[in-house]
Structure formats: structure tokens, C-alpha cells
């Protein structure tokens, strides 16, 4: 049954448990993400923060607990349905960008739309619009190897946003960048997400970056230790 919320979150986890052997990565976590939220998940290595991101995104299955997207339970979906959900309702930005080396910037951005069945012309045009919003106009034809680290991450951000997802998951998105480029990249991600109305969940080891975000959730030993708001 759908839980009762005063204000229904766009994404919610209830009693999330994830084990690896006898060790708990998640030990019964409850979390709400509101539409437009920008949340940093922090904690020491092995605390469970990446497991939480992957469980919420449907990349991993929780051993127990429930996950709701816009009030609809999604943790019971089969792998095909969860894959479709990740392609249509979620966006992803990873530390390495994970761009396709053989494709141009505009083709990388268009990829989720193309995989979703949209036409090439429409998908490429939408990709170009997002690249322009992220300051990459004129670099649409460049391949990842022809871009700087910060530019490649902006392509990854554009790819995550082009299909207007409800939630963007970012796993150490600035981990491979220098401090200045990392901050600029995070600013671009948060501004673009706010423009589209997407919530952003960021896993990071960078305490300074986390403290600059509107909300921080600290994970320790598979449990939420604190919730902080700016």
C-alpha cells in the first residue's frame, strides 16, 4: 500500500536493507527526496552511501524494504521494467562520465532518447540544446577524447538531462576533476537540474562540496546518522 505522506516525495525508500554476505551495507534506511531537491550523501568508505544510491536507482535490488517513485512502488518491478525506468525516469552522472568514445558529444547526449525509440533528428536537436545550455555550443561534433575532463562531464550531465528525468543520480561526479573544474561542473549540474525540475542525489567524499549543497545526508554503518539543511 502507498504510504501516507503530508507532501509526497518524488522518490522514497522505506526500511531499505542490503547485505553482502553477513555484512550490512544498508541496515534499514528511510529516506525522502522531494521534487527539485539537491541532496549530498556523504560518509566514510564502506558506509553504504553508494549502495543506497544504487538501490534507489534500481541498479541493485534491496534485500528488503520498499522504494516509491512519485508514490508508485518500483522495487518489485522485474529487470526489464527497472531498466526502462532507469532510461526514462532517471538520469546518471558517474565519476568517469562513461561516455561512448566512438560517438560525438551530441550523439552521446542523444543516446538515451535514441534507445527509448525517438527519432535521430529529434534526439540530436534536443542534445544540441542541452549542450548549448551547458556552455558547449560549437563542440557538438567533438568526441570525448577531444574534450577536457570538465567538458566531458558536462556532456554526461546533458545526457542525464535530455529526457527530462525526475531524479538524477550522480556518483562522485567531480572525483576525477581538479577542485576548480569540479565546483564549476557541480554548479552546472545543479543549475541545469533546477531548470528542468529534476531532483539531484550526489554521492561524494568531498565534504566541502557536500556542505555547499542545500541538504546533506550522512551515512554510517548502513544507517542515516544525520540530516542537515542549509
TrEMBL record:
Residues 11-228 form the ABC transporter domain. InterPro entries: AAA+_ATPase, ABC_transporter-like_ATP-bd, ABC_transporter-like_CS, ABC_transpr_LolD-like, MacB-like_ATP-bd, P-loop_NTPase. Gene3D superfamilies: P-loop containing nucleotide triphosphate hydrolases. The keyword Nucleotide-binding applies. Keywords: ATP-binding, Nucleotide-binding, Transport. The keyword Transport applies. It holds the Pfam family ABC_tran. GO terms for molecular function: ATP binding; ATP hydrolysis activity; transmembrane transporter activity. GO terms for cellular component: plasma membrane. PANTHER family: ABC TRANSPORTER RELATED, IMPORT ATP-BINDING PROTEIN. This is Peptide ABC transporter ATPase. The lineage of its organism: Bacteria, Bacillati, Actinomycetota, Actinomycetes, Pseudonocardiales.
Amino acid at each position: 500500500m502507498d504510504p501516507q505522506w503530508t507532501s509526497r516525495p518524488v522518490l522514497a525508500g522505506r526500511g531499505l536493507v542490503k547485505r553482502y554476505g553477513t555484512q550490512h551495507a544498508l541496515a534499514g534506511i528511510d529516506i525522502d527526496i522531494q521534487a527539485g531537491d539537491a541532496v549530498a550523501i556523504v560518509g566514510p568508505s564502506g558506509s553504504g552511501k553508494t549502495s543506497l544510491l544504487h538501490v534507489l536507482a534500481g541498479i541493485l535490488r534491496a534485500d528488503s524494504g520498499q522504494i516509491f517513485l512519485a508514490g508508485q512502488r518500483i522495487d518489485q518491478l522485474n529487470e526489464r521494467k527497472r531498466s526502462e525506468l532507469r532510461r526514462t525516469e532517471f538520469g546518471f552522472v558517474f565519476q568517469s562520465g562513461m561516455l561512448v568514445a566512438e560517438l560525438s558529444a551530441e550523439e552521446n547526449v542523444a543516446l538515451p532518447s535514441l534507445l527509448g525509440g525517438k527519432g535521430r533528428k529529434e534526439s540530436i536537436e534536443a542534445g544540441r540544446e542541452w549542450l548549448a545550455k551547458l556552455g558547449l555550443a560549437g563542440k557538438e561534433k567533438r568526441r570525448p577524447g577531444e574534450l577536457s575532463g570538465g567538458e566531458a562531464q558536462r556532456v554526461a550531465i546533458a545526457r542525464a538531462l535530455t529526457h527530462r528525468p525526475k531524479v538524477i543520480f550522480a556518483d562522485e561526479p567531480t572525483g576525477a576533476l581538479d577542485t576548480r573544474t569540479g565546483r564549476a561542473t557541480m554548479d552546472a549540474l545543479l543549475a541545469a537540474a533546477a531548470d528542468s525540475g529534476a531532483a539531484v542525489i550526489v554521492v561524494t567524499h568531498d565534504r566541502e562540496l557536500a556542505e555547499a549543497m542545500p541538504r546533506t545526508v550522512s551515512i554510517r554503518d548502513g544507517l542515516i546518522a544525520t540530516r542537515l539543511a542549509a
